[in-house]
Amino acid sequence: MSDDWRRSDADGYQSPADQSPADRPAPGRSDHDRWTQGPDVAAYTDEAASVGAAGDDAETLRERQRLAQVEMMDRWIGGVLTEQRRSRRWKLFFRFMTLFLILALVATVVYNVFWAPAGDSSTLQRHLGVVEVNGVIASDAPANAERIIRGLNRAWDSDNTEAVVLHIDSPGGSPVQSQRIYAEIMRLREQGDKPILAVIEDIGASGAYYIASAADEIIASPASLVGSIGVIYAGFGFQDAISRIGVERRVMTAGENKAFLDPFQPLDDDAEAFWQGVLTQTHQQFIDDVRAGRGDRLSDRPEIFSGLVWSGEQGLELGLVDQMGSLEEVARAHVGEASWEDYTPRLDPFDRLTRRFTQVAASVLGLQAPNSPLRYQAQ
Question: Gene3D superfamilies per the record (predicted)?
């Protein structure tokens, strides 16, 4: 036996050969295993040894040490599992918060696009109160009397609107819808609280010009189309076509003239004269209202009321338009900057989708027809 080995024996160290089976390390276990050695294990070992009885033998002390190590492992594993659960809960929390923020953002965008009322009357900055008149004017179209009138009153009632502006880009449409809007504009205009202006974009003709004529001023671009002060009815006569293909038309009415506009029956002279009288009377209503709205600004040239469409520059010479300009120029003239708020009520998205689908289907099937056969509409 070497001197090193003797020194080890003198220090109380035993070689593996001299160790008893209970003292030898378990197979596959390193003497430097971090799970069974180290300061934590030593602490638990010391604790176990310290609580042992004075007369405990070596086997009992080893068992206490093993139990202390097992307890330490249980505590460590429990701590790891607790930390994993805590980390998992935080991950779920952040995922739910992210999902909530995304849904809130989407809901805000959808609300602002489809349901939020246009034109916030609480806006402190002075601005123009704009009401959009886009497309055909009809009861079943976005440019209907109820919607435009509601927008007009909303803009009129706002304390911070410098002027109410009808922003028009329409070929016209229903006489009744146009007359309703015209009457409301004239009612507000008579109150004299703030000016009502009509700004025409590409086209403001027929029923759209009917509406514009009620405003205090009409502004258009030089290339805008204005006028078309007239009434139109358009139909077809198929009586010869159905006879050629052998189709019998069966119509029953109560009232001898109830079906006088039936396209499958000939239009006799009396029915034509009667219908022409309706058109003439409706046209005269149009003329009278335009004259009432425009006053002495209108030229006395008779062709103004012939149904012709004029450019904005020609309309200025005829008194149909007051000045050349755009919405931005009008805003700068009244509030010093291009600032305006849209007071047009939002469309119900489901109603808009249904209306669009119905219009497309009717157009494809050839069933699209106006509610009224008379139109204030440029052709």
Answer: 2-enoyl-CoA Hydratase, Chain A, domain 1, 6.20.330.10
Q: Can you give the pLDDT of all 379 residues of the chain as single tens digits?
A: 444 434 444 444 444 445 555 455 544 444 555 545 555 545 545 554 454 555 667 788 888 888 888 888 888 888 888 888 888 888 888 888 899 989 988 887 777 666 555 544 445 688 899 999 999 999 889 999 999 999 999 999 998 899 999 999 999 999 999 999 999 999 999 998 899 999 999 999 999 999 999 999 999 999 999 999 988 888 777 777 877 888 877 778 888 778 777 777 777 888 888 889 999 999 999 999 999 999 999 998 989 999 999 999 999 999 999 999 999 999 999 888 878 899 999 876 655 556 565 655 555 555 444 455 566 666 5
Given 116, 137, 157, which residue is the final one in a domain? 116
Amino acid letter at 72?
M
The answer to whether 166 and 212 are in contact (CB under 8 A) is yes
Q: Are residues 94 and 157 in the same domain?
A: no
294: closest CA among 316, 314, 311, 326? 316
Two structure tokens written together for 28: 């596959």
Torsion 114-119-121-126 (CA) sign:
positive
Closest CA to 183 of 309, 288, 53: 288
Containing 165, the helix (H) or strand (E) segment is strand 161-170
Domain total in the chain: 2
Return the closest-CA partner of residue 14 out of 36, 35, 31, 38: 31
Q: Which residues of 226-261 are buried (b: 16+ CB within 10 A; e: fewer)?
A: bbbbbbbeeeeeeeeeeeeeeeeeeeeeeeeeeebe
Residue 161: half-sphere exposure toward Cβ, Cα within 13 Å:
27
Is the model's pTM score more than 0.90? no
**Does the residue 241 lie in any domain?**
yes
Residue 83 domain boundaries: 22-116
> Is 10 among the domain residues?
no
In this structure, the answer to whether residues 235 and 361 fall within a common structural domain is yes
Pair (48, 191) in one structural domain: no
The last residue of a domain, from among 116, 149, 180: 116
State which amino acid sits at residue 201. E
Q: Helices in the chain by DSSP H: which ranges? A: 3-10, 39-51, 58-110, 145-157, 175-191, 207-212, 239-244, 269-294, 312-318, 327-335, 349-365
